[in-house]
Structures are given as structure tokens and as C-alpha cells.
Amino acid sequence: MLNRRTAIAALAAALIMPGAAFAQATTPSAAQIERQLDAAPRMRLRPDQRVTVREFKRRPDLRRAAPSIDIQSINFAFGSAEVAPSQYGKVKNIADALNAVLRRNRRAQILIEGHTDAVGSAASNQVLSERRAESLKRVLVREFGVPSRALETIGYGEEFLLVPTQQENWRNRRVTLRRFDDFVR
User: Fold this and answer.
1) Are 71 and 176 a contacting pair, CB within 8 Å?
2) Where does residue 181 rank: exposed (0-12), middle (13-18), buried (19+ CB within 10 A)?
3) Among 80, 57, 182, which residue's Cα sits nearest to residue 135?
4) Is the four-CA dihedral 121, 162, 184, 133 of positive or negative sign?
5) Continuous segment of H or E residues that includes residue 20
6) How far apart are the two ends of the chain, measured CA to CA in Å?
7) Using one digit for the tens of pLDDT, what is the confidence trace for 30-75?
8) pTM of the predicted model over 0.70
9) What is the spatial distance between Cα 82 and Cα 124, in angstroms, rounded to a whole number?
10) 99 CB burial (10 A radius; 0-12, 13-18, 19+)
């Protein structure tokens, strides 16, 4: 029953707001992702200012300064962290971009951040965002050959909403790819 309700709600949303449905389904090209991740960081750290990976994950100021791109088009089933095979074409764009970046710089490191909207409890959203980031990493590594050593994951749940609302909003359900090798020791 939940799947039928979800399908009806999605159809209604597409009819009422066709632009939103299109935007959610649009995936950046591999070239767009690559350009964003190859951009210069907004700030440079001296070697003595660099931090651990763990600290980078906890520092919004550093994360905002790192080259990044939001990917809002990977669709997960409600409450699920599994990347469905139907989404692999979108994941391939990500993998192609990451592999190109890593061919040029083997030491590049990418943080996969999982984000949710604010529907549901903060605790369940936190766990779901972590599982979704890990699931994307698993598919990138197993299906598309992205080296595991280059990828880190974290879930932020509903902590960093793009659209500040307690209502369901697809823009908040996203994955952010963030290149952080210029920030860590």
C-alpha cells in the first residue's frame, strides 16, 4: 500500500510541479562532476593547519571551502539505503568523473556525504543518511572500479538542509561529493 501511495504522490507532484520532477531526475554529466571536483578550494591550508579526516568531517567551515557538487538525482526507495540497479546509469556518471580525477591525481580523496530531509526522527534520518552514503560507495567500488582508498563516507541526516523546512523536500535528499585531499594530513 505504501508503494501505491508513494507512486500516486509522485505522479501528483509531477503534474502539479513538472519543473521539480525534471530537476530531480537530472543528473550532472561526468564532465560537470569532474570540473566541480577539480576546482580550486576556496581556501588553502598551510601544512601545519591540515587536519585529520575525522576532524574535516566535523568542520563545516572546511567542508564549505572544499570543491563539491550536490547530486540530487539518485533515487532511493522510501526508508531504503539500497542503490537500485535502475540508478546505475546515474552512478556511472559519478564513477567516470571520480576515475578521471584519480587518474590525474592518485592521492585525491572524496567524501561522500549522505543527507536526508527532516521528515521522521532525527535519529532515523542520521542512520539512513549514513547507510545511503555507504551504499553509494559500495556500488562505486564494486560495480564501477573506483578505488575504495579514495573514498570516505559520512551521513549528516537532516543537519544541513538546503531548503529549511520540516516538510518533505527532495532537494534535501541528496548526496554531496566533496574533494578534501587539500585539507588533510
Assistant:
1) yes
2) middle
3) 80
4) positive
5) helix 18-25
6) 50
7) 999 999 999 999 999 999 999 999 999 999 999 999 999 999 888 8
8) yes
9) 16
10) middle
